[in-house]
């Protein structure tokens, strides 16, 4: 194999072709038309590229004279419609869009979680930097984005040495709102976000936060456990009902399963406001309930909740991805007490 090019020079497709003993066209086909290359040859090219530190063709170099697309990529980790259907995703993206508009940048949403080509789709995106919506440490899109050597900002984790992480302290916030909703509870429960990329739905007693792959779910669950233990509640006896998505309709179905499997529940800590509303509609106002995000739903239905500004966090993520210092949002939250917990 040829020696690695000097660190001061960007590794090119020609370097990879020379080291692998193939033509530059074969390297191009490996990345852009893999069906035209044998499995063995593609494996050899990719192994050589990894050894040389070549991350694949740079879309910006193909399209713009100055090597910049003036486009910011948002890796969503959800179906594309999520960007328009989920109120908190809408606010987060609005914050990003505001920064892009101010700086003359375009915005490219890259949905993932739909197939085996997620990694290639992210790496091939013609963008100057990435903002990644919360995901799990085992998500291949993280390596795909950081492997391009473009700036990467991850909202709420996971934390990587090669990326900036920005978000609130979810564990501290969950502990605070948990103390409110569990204050007089004898049979508390949690209505939870998905725990990993499999997105299975289940009800489990005393779910261990350490077993959860998604950082936001893990930290909020750990905070609720902290609150329960502070109040002398045995966490092993607290049922956690896990939803596949975070919308109200599914949360109502999961809430019905929770009530059937654990009768007598008198408090529910939900990980967002639509889930809290689902719990309220299924369990009634005799059960103490808390939500998260202080959305319009929370204000309309008197839900105790955690207030945070996802629009401000989206704007900060975008600005950080474009080179500005990342602000500290860890304490940018507060509990809003309303009628759902007797306030």
CATH level-4 homologous superfamily of the largest domain: Response regulator
**CATH architecture level-2 label of the largest domain:** 3-Layer(aba) Sandwich
Poorly predicted segments: none
- The geometry reads as elongated
Oligomer class: single chain
Radius of gyration: 23 Å
In sequence order, what are the helices and strands, one letter per element?
HHHHEHHEHEHEEHEEHEHEHEHEHE
Strand content: 5-15%
Explain this structure to me?
With 343 residues, this protein is an alpha/beta fold. The protein has three domains: 13-57, 434 Repressor (Amino-terminal Domain) (Orthogonal Bundle); 66-166, Response regulator (Rossmann fold); 170-307, Response regulator (Rossmann fold, 3-Layer(aba) Sandwich). The chain is built from 14 helices and twelve strands. The chain has helices at 13-20, 24-32, 39-52, 59-63, 82-85, 87-103, 118-123, 140-147, 170-181, 215-230, 248-261, 273-283, 296-300, 310-321, and strands spanning 71-75, 106-110, 129-132, 152-155, 164-166, 188-192, 202-205, 239-242, 267-270, 288-290, 305-307, 334-336. It has a five-stranded parallel sheet with strand order 2-1-3-4-5, sandwiched between helices. Strands 7-8-6-9-10 form a five-stranded mixed sheet, sandwiched between helices. Strand 3, helix 8 and strand 4 form a beta-alpha-beta unit. The longest helix is centred in the first third of the chain and has 17 residues, at 87-103. It is elongated, with a radius of gyration of 23 Å. It starts with 12 loop residues before the first helix and ends in a 7-residue tail after the last strand. The mean pLDDT is 91.
């Amino acid at each position: 194999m040829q020696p690695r090019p000097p660190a001061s020079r960007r590794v090119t497709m020609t370097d990879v072709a020379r080291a692998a003993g193939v033509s530059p066209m074969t390297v191009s086909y490996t990345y852009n038309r893999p069906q035209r290359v044998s499995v063995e040859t593609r494996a050899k090219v990719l192994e050589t590229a990894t050894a040389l530190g070549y991350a694949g063709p740079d879309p910006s170099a193909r399209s713009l004279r100055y090597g910049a697309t003036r486009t910011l990529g948002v890796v969503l980790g959800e179906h594309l419609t999520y960007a328009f259907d989920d109120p908190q995703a809408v606010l987060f993206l609005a914050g990003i869009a505001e920064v892009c508009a101010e700086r003359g940048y375009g915005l490219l949403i890259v949905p993932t979680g739909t197939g085996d080509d997620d990694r290639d789709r992210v790496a091939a995106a013609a963008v100057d930097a990435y903002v990644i919506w919360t995901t799990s440490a085992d998500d291949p899109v993280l390596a795909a984005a950081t492997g391009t050597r473009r700036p990467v900002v991850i909202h709420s984790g996971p934390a990587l040495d090669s990326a900036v992480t920005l978000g609130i302290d979810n564990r501290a916030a969950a502990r605070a709102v948990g103390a409110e909703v569990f204050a007089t509870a004898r049979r508390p429960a949690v209505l939870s976000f998905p725990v990993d990329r499999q997105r299975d739905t289940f009800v489990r007693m005393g779910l261990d936060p350490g077993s959860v792959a998604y950082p936001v779910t893990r930290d909020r669950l750990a905070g609720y456990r902290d609150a329960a233990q502070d109040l002398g509640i045995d966490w092993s006896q607290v049922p956690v009902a896990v939803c596949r998505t975070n919308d109200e309709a599914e949360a109502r179905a999961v809430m019905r399963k929770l009530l059937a499997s654990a009768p007598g529940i008198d408090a529910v800590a939900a990980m967002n406001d639509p889930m809290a509303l689902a719990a309220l509609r299924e369990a009634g106002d005799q059960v103490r309930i808390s939500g998260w995000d202080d959305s319009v739903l929370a204000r309309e239905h008197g839900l105790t909740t955690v207030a945070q500004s996802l629009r401000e966090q989206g704007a900060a993520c975008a600005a950080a991805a474009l080179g500005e210092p990342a602000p500290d949002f860890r304490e940018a939250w507060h509990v809003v007490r309303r009628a759902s917990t007797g306030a």
